[in-house]
Design goal:
By secondary structure, the protein is of the alpha/beta class. Helix content is 20%, strand content 34%.
């Protein structure tokens, strides 16, 4: 599967849109019904992030793409057999594809589809600090070992590494992780990472955010698990967004998942970052288990 996009419901669409465009360098595209879509110059996806007007600040869905309609049907049938919390049967999607949605056991909504519109990525000018694509998402989990088992059994992920029992990294692609699960008391979205072309673009992106007055939460540094550079910032809606680059390739037959120690020397191999905030990304999501735009969402926000 490929990681396609992440969508959000937010109370202040324009405030969050300003952050994603001017601070994070995403490209604002046309939207409908008050929604705002964002693309990135290296992505085949017409939109890698979407904002929707909502009565609460929440993560709406994380979207994955598969190769064919038959793959969608096979995955749906497999999830039916696992008695997963499915949202309807496969059918036409809003972006022109064929797919379905499913809640994971802790209420994070996932979209699985095929046949959605793709594009030829426009030319990318290096040295501008512009993200190329969405890299990965990290969910908070009250039982990340059990949830990792579900992702592997239900969706075909494989575990690539652990950070003690605090983080588990998983992928269906050649890269080290598309999804990671952080051990926290409450489920929810921990952060979304956007991929830069190289270290120079990564540092230029980080510097732009800092020059615009945004305090860096954690970074810049280089993680041990995944070997990727990191710099984290908090958006106006409270979501944590990361600039990253050079995520490790982990699809070789001899790759063996290891357990890293949760110590500064392995969380940041460079030793250049500020101390990690204790409550980094560990906030609950009022939209867990709730279909975006539903009457249940309105009741939950009241």
């Amino acid at each position: 599967m490929r990681l396609r996009s992440v969508s959000f419901g937010v109370r202040d669409v324009e405030g969050q849109a300003h952050f994603l465009r001017d601070v994070f360098g995403l490209v604002r595209e046309d939207g409908e019904n008050g929604c705002v879509r964002f693309s990135a110059p290296g992505s085949i996806e017409p939109a890698i992030t979407t904002l929707r007007p909502a009565p609460m600040d929440r993560a709406d869905a994380v979207a994955f793409g598969v190769d064919s309609r038959s793959a969608v049907d096979q995955m749906h049938d497999h999830l039916v057999g696992l008695e997963a919390d499915l949202v309807g049967r496969p059918g036409p999607t809003a972006d022109g594809g064929y797919g379905f949605e499913v809640f994971d056991p802790e209420g994070h909504l996932l979209s699985i589809s095929a046949g959605t519109a793709v594009r030829t990525p426009p030319p990318h000018e290096r040295g501008k600090g512009l993200p190329l694509d969405v890299s990965h998402v990290v969910f908070n989990s009250s039982d990340n070992a059990a949830l990792a088992d579900w992702y592997c059994t239900a969706l075909g992920f494989r575990v690539t590494d652990w950070l003690e029992d605090k983080l588990v990294f998983m992928s269906t692609s050649r890269y080290h992780h598309q999804v990671a699960l952080a051990a926290t008391p409450e489920p929810g979205l921990n952060h979304v990472a956007y991929e830069c072309a190289d270290i120079d673009d990564f540092m230029r992106a980080t510097g732009r955010a800092m020059r615009l007055g945004h305090e860096i939460l954690w970074g810049p540094g280089r993680h041990g698990p995944g070997d990727n550079a990191f710099a984290y910032f908090r958006s106006p809606a409270g979501f944590v967004c990361e600039f990253t680059t050079e995520l490790a390739v982990a699809d070789s037959p001899d790759w063996v998942a290891r357990t890293w120690e949760a110590v500064p020397e392995q969380s940041d191999l460079w030793g250049t970052s500020n101390p990690r905030p204790p409550a980094f990304g560990a906030s609950g999501d009022p939209g867990l288990g709730i279909i975006p735009g539903s009457s249940e969402e309105l009741r939950a926000a009241a």
